[in-house]
Design brief:
It catalyses: ATP + protein L-histidine = ADP + protein N-phospho-L-histidine. The protein is an alpha+beta fold and about 400 residues long. It contains 9 helices and 11 strands. About 55% of the residues lie in helices and about 20% in strands. A 5-stranded mixed sheet has the order 6-8-9-11-10.
């Protein structure tokens, strides 16, 4: 299992664990809320009984204190209606909307407030029947403010936890990405530094061999010089990682065709190369780094072809968006759709000896240094894959007017 798959598995397990914690919190809070609901219902039933007997209990000084205490400790809003459906009394409602204003207060009577409250109470709980001197009444109540808060508390809690986890994940991901960038940059620059000395020595040795053995036109020396130049290009690529490269205006077709000409002689004869499309479109490129992009794509395409096959590059200009599309297609074994994004992750590889860094570097070069995009445009198992690079065209077009 590669590191990317391990990371995905751990993320999945942590997500499941967080969901289980959230579900457990909701169930626990729900059981607590139901317990409070029962207690409020019992308190309401007791209040109803006290109200029914209040007239008789007020005649007794010993019970009058009990009645007042029960009424004072009742926080549940209550509305009583008569047999005709008219509100006869209420308790625990907002006094700023239920009392008439006076010269000393700034109260405002809201008749619709009672209608809304009664509708809400009827929707929440069934009424209790009351009997006052032969007249029947119904008492409705709604949940207290604290109970309502507790009912929504687990969802608010989960939302806050989710936002915290999301913020923490973004912060840690950013820190990890910065750390990876520092590792990439440090490794690349150290590699370029280490290659510098032997390359200089090889250049000196070839000059010495040409002068000592009079081998100015020796083809072997010429090939050695080509390989040394190749090493210089590779060193230049590594040295540019981490610093802002200089982008210059180039014809995309010429840059890619020059590299294909170099690359195909170092690949199996069973793989056929072709380049088609717009030969005039231009873009701002850093040629050594962009060659690295094309090299990685062509290497992956060649490795995906097990026997005979073909690799084609098609260059398309999107005039409407002033963009350049570069499609690199092969007739290899293809990529599963579920792995379209995974192929660009560091460490992802299907080869036994691969490091899984080629496409990750490719994505960084295209997006970070050329402000472009790269993605798997399409792929089918057993038939091949097409990668698409999108670059900003350096040509500007003015709309024509009649």
């Amino acid at each position: 299992m590669n590191p990317y798959q391990k990371k995905r598995r751990w993320k999945f397990f942590l997500l499941i664990f967080a969901i289980l914690i959230g579900i457990a919190s909701v169930f626990y809070t729900d059981s607590f809320v139901k317990k409070m609901e029962r207690e409020e219902a019992d308190q309401f039933h007791l209040w109803v009984k006290i109200q029914e007997r209040a007239m008789f209990l007020y005649d007794n000084d010993d019970y009058r204190v009990i009645v007042e205490t029960v009424r004072a400790n009742t926080k549940t809003p209550v509305i009583m209606i008569d047999s005709a459906g008219m509100i006869s009394s209420f308790f625990g409602l907002d006094s700023t909307k239920t009392n008439y204003p006076t010269a000393d207060t700034k109260l405002s009577y809201d008749s619709l407030y009672f209608v809304r409250q009664l509708r809400q109470m009827k929707a929440q709980h069934p009424p209790d029947e009351m009997n006052f001197f032969g007249k029947k009444f119904k008492a409705y109540y709604r949940d207290s403010f604290i109970l309502t808060q507790l009912r929504y508390f687990p969802y608010i809690q989960m939302g806050v936890i989710f936002l915290f986890l999301l913020t923490a994940y973004a912060a840690f991901s950013s820190a990890r990405r910065d750390e990876q960038d520092h590792v990439w940059v440090g490794l690349a620059k150290e590699t370029a530094h280490q290659l510098g000395t032997p390359i200089s020595s090889l250049m000196a040795w070839t000059e010495l061999m040409k002068s000592k053995f009079d081998a100015e036109d020796d083809p072997l020396i010429a090939e050695m010089e080509n390989d040394i130049k190749r090493l210089e290009i590779i060193t230049d690529r590594f040295s540019k990682i981490g610093s802002k490269p200089i982008l210059e205006d180039h014809t995309v077709y010429i840059v890619i065709s020059d590299f294909i000409r170099y690359f195909k002689v170092r690949t199996s004869d069973k793989v056929k190369f072709s380049i088609t499309g717009d030969e005039q479109v231009r873009a701002l490129l850093n040629v050594p780094l962009f060659d690295w992009v094309i090299e990685n794509l062509l290497k992956n395409a060649a490795n995906a072809i097990e026997n005979e096959g073909s690799i084609s590059v098609n260059i398309i200009e999107n005039l409407a968006k002033e963009q350049v599309f570069i499609d690199v297609s092969d007739t290899g074994k293809g990529i599963p759709r579920s792995k379209f994004d995974a192929v660009f992750q560091p460490g992802y590889t299907t080869r036994k000896r691969g490091w899984g860094l080629g496409l990750s570097l490719t994505k960084r070069i295209v997006e970070n240094y050329h402000s472009g995009e790269i993605f798997v445009k399409e792929s089918e198992l057993g038939k091949g894959t097409t990668f698409r690079i999108i670059l900003k065209s350096s040509l500007r077009y003015e709309p024509t007017t009649a």
